[in-house]
Amino acid sequence: MAESEAVLNARASGRSLAVFDIDGTLTDTNAIDGEAFAAAVCAHLGLPSISTNWSRFPRVTDSAIFDTLCRDHLGHGAEAHDVTRVQEQLLAHFARAPRDAFAPIAGARELLQALRGRDDWTVALATGAWACSARYKLKAAGLDDVFVAFAHPLRRSLLDALASGEKPVKELASAYQVSRPAISQHLRILLDAGLVEGRRHGRANCYALRPEKLAAAHEWISKYETFWDTRMARLGQYLDRTGRQSPQHKGEKR
Description:
- With 254 residues, the chain is mostly helical.
- It is 55% helix and 9% strand.
- A hairpin with a 2-residue loop joins strand 4 (196-201) and strand 5 (204-209).
- Helix 5 (108-116) crosses helix 11 (211-229).
- The two termini are 15 Å apart.
């Protein structure tokens, strides 16, 4: 969920909002993120190497860095085919990396799952990485996509709608003031997370819940509910006491 939307939803519901970056906060992936991004960009632009001093860029995000480098070396901004190709190369580098390059930060899994289980907190993910990069790192670190899927209110509403049975995309889209392609994109995220399953029925694309995946998420959250009740206050106290800032990596995009 975009940070601004999460803020609005949190204010409307009276909930507290916790916003997490991914690289260096939830996943120990600053190193592989920088290495793979640089390698993918070099391969696409035909460069021997690039400096990974990301602070030299005015905007430290995957999109902004790549656009600047395209302008510097191709004479034009990044076009759709450039982005698609470099993202494919980035994911290929991730796939060749050792699994321990995507380790979760200690306690990140438990923290996210405990917060998801509380009615008085809303969780959002804020990252300057491309969505495909963010999803890969979260999944590789074992921070299941199910919690990313839960982050958007429309996706939660879609799950509610599917609770009564299988429905075609056309019927789901008619209930919301968004386009069918937008609904399909949200359904794709739910599908990738394993929360729904899709099939063709004649000319219609239909979706249905996968309740076993939802049950697994509920079981895990419930396990930590009691644990977190005694510790949530300590998080706020700790953050109040500390104002430390760490050095900026590309993963810490703003």
